[in-house]
Specification:
Length: 151
């Protein structure tokens, strides 16, 4: 039987495929949704802040932002206080596509959980919250012995 992490990975990959299909006309891929959501909610984040916020390595963030910039969804500006840092801002095009992005996410979540009762959804969300807290704690925390088993 596959581990629960494998199942989560499969769900995530299927979500990417679904998002890409639904947003094909916008020029966004499934992976870009996290960036659009994050930047529209928090304009002016640095690339490093984005990487930490959405838990993606910096090199992937750089590559994805370049794609988004090329397609007119974001713009990068040099930080006036620290010239080594670039701040990323959504363009009007990103704000314009935001309602469609949120609808696609909402529709996918509704589809996956449509046969869950209210009680099951409450329990499921509580368990996911616990797992998410532990996962983010593990990657955000400095481990003295480098071992995640003690977390």
């Amino acid at each position: 039987m596959p581990s629960f992490m494998r199942k989560i990975h499969i769900i995530g990959r299927c979500a990417m495929i679904y998002r890409a299909q639904q947003l094909k006309e916008t020029g966004l891929s499934g992976v870009h949704l996290s960036y659009i959501l994050t930047l529209c909610r928090h304009p002016g984040m640095s690339q490093e802040q984005i990487a930490r916020h959405i838990y993606i390595n910096k090199s992937n963030v750089t590559r994805h932002l370049a794609q988004l910039q090329q397609n007119g969804f974001v713009e990068r500006k040099q930080n006036e206080n620290d010239r080594r840092e670039q701040l990323v801002y959504p363009t009007q095009k990103a704000y314009d596509v935001l309602p469609e992005v949120t609808a696609v996410i909402r529709n996918w979540n509704s589809y996956l959980t449509e046969d869950f009762s209210d009680e099951e959804m409450e329990q499921f969300n509580a368990m996911l919250d616990r797992i998410t807290r532990r996962a983010t704690c593990a990657v955000n925390k400095e481990f003295e012995d480098g071992d995640l088993h003690g977390a």
